[in-house]
Please model this.
Amino acid sequence: MASTSAVHAPAVRPVRGPRSTSAARPRLAIVAAPKTAGSSMPFTILCTLIVTATLAALLYMNIQMSDTSYEITRLQSQSQRLTEEKQALTETDERLGTPQELERQARELGMVPVTDPAYIDLDTGKIIGETSSAAQTEVNPELAPVAPEAAVPPAEIYDKPTTYHGMGNEGV
Amino acid sequence: MARSRSSRRTRTTQTTGRPRARAGAARMPQGRLGAPAVRHRLLICLIMAAVLMISGRLVWVQGLDASARAQEAIDQRTVTRTIPALRGDILDRNGTTMASSVERYDLWVNQLQVDEYLQGSKDAEVTGIDAAAQELAPVLGWSVSDTKAKLTGDRGFMYLQKNVDPKVRDAIISLKIPGIGADRVADRIYPAGSVGGNILGFVGADGSALAGTEYSFDDELSGTDGKTSYERGAGGQIIPTGTQQTTPAVDGNDLVLTIDRDLQWKAQQIVAGAVDKWEATGGSAVAMNARTGEVLAMAEYPSYDPNNPTTEDGQYLGNRSISNVFEPGSTGKLFTLATALEEGTATPESQYEIPYEQYFEGERIKDSHYHPDQKLTLAGVLKHSSNVGTVQISEKLDPQVRYDYLRAFGLGETTGVQLPAESAGIVHPPEDWTGRTRYTTAFGQGYSVNALQMVSAVGTFANDGVRVNPSLVSGVRQDDGTVRPLGQPDSTRVISSDTAATMRGLMDNDIEDGDNNASVTGYATAGKTGTAQVGDDGYTASFIGFAPADDPEIVVGVFVFGLDTFISGNTAAAPAFSELMTFTLQNQGIPPTGVPGREYENEW
Model:
């Protein structure tokens, strides 16, 4: 196009402007307006949501974990306390069940050792051995003889003075 | 450049004569303008240097030195704790606890810190050690002055009291006295105290087994400690994301004894009563199942409380029934008679002429009490416990044969009962039976035995001629409650079934029903007394027997040591035997057989 305008240059000078203008005008065609990319907002929100949700989940899990951890500690100390309670009860049970203690309590109730027990043969219904009612049942329990029975003393763990005067619920 | 431009502007302003408003700018001080470029560079340099430093540090900490640093942090918050293995319990034959492990606390004090108690408090009238002592004293059960003395000083660590109950520890910790703390420890308790103390033994303060069954079966009883390590937060809680490693503790096994605790207690009462009554120095009693060899009770007096084995000086912490050896005396005649019957050199009806004293190759043998010449059968020799008669019977036997039988009855060797410090006793071989020994061994002198051996040996007659080694431990309790036995006791046939039956008859003949110190109401009882002098330590009186005589279930032996004067077994030991046998038969639920005791012709 440049060479053409040079050949006709003198003649067409006056109209050069408009002509060249018209010649250079680009052929316009209606094109569809480029589709706008649309708002970036939803994507941003999505990303934000994902990040937030992740963070929230992480936070929640961490809270849960440390909560559980505290719970474990609490339960462990509860378990320890209950173990000690059970142990204390077992010890009381064992102390009350010792032969020495049973004998003492039985005598306080006025009971006496059996001397001549009789047996019943379950097959024949026969009574084996002769028995008589135990003596001393009417005796004042205070007077029941305990002399040689003091020979085996109670365990020394129970002989200590009661050292505890609290309510039993301290340190809970 | 900037300066020239601005001065030009100033000049223009002046020439054009613009309004005064512009004139103010002209008077702005030159210094305010400064040199921004230089300052920027300086600032940037500084920032760069700082960033470089920080990032350098970052690289150092995160990159180059990371693992070491992280480890240091982990080490700081990681704690490792030992999980102590619980020592197994010791139970009696019915599952009653005889020894168990419990948790206790050792209370300690840092005396340097106690004075800080209540110092910050505005409304406390008493502060410091005085206040602490006042609060602590009632909980510990001490006087205030004693408590104060314990709290005062400059020791950084001192035990206040050991082995306190968890409740006491809680009460003390809740007082929040500075410098007072508690360590958890395991303690061993024996609920029934001295009942069975000699069998159970005890453990030391550090938990190591020192005596008795605790010592012999330490491998079964003691477990293996475990440990746990975890990362710990400020509040002591476990950090959940941290590493945790736990090796669980393996608790010890529970040991089941053949002892019956009630019977053991009764036996101890009876022995104590007999020893006190006759002012002896000590005593033993053994009750045994004749068929299985299970020792139901092995009592002695004086005994000790394993909860506190070292309270009294010089108290005996062993087991007389197996460690104290003595000459059996007349109970030894049973073995001579059994040998003669088994070897066929005598029958229960064999006839002997018994003077009060008789010389055998120049050795004078006499009976315990004077009597005119007697015509006794073998049964009568046993019933009258004649030394002369027994020597006459034994003289038809070769000493080697008699020795072999004594050994076969288990004398001169340990019973295998698996308790520490058992003494085998001494039975010299026949070539050493010089002078009197050849004769005295016939009636239980010149060799020594322990109480359990004797009861086990006499039990041979009760168990139809088969000797079963006594046992004290029936096994280890499994998780499902069954008991895993720790090996079967050995049993050996010593004499024939017939001879054993004859011996039972002879021993039954020895004890008249209902009319003897040793007889048991309602039951035919068989037994033999024994008395022997023990050097200068006085006399040992004993009684060993079994019941029901026709079908024996229980063998009982009672031994009273260190009698000042000659007190026969019939006087000192037989009543205790009767009482213990009566209780054992009841305790084990053995009914009378209803068969009356056998009688032999004692004289001819």
Summary: Residues 280 and 563 of chain B are 5 Å apart (CA to CA).
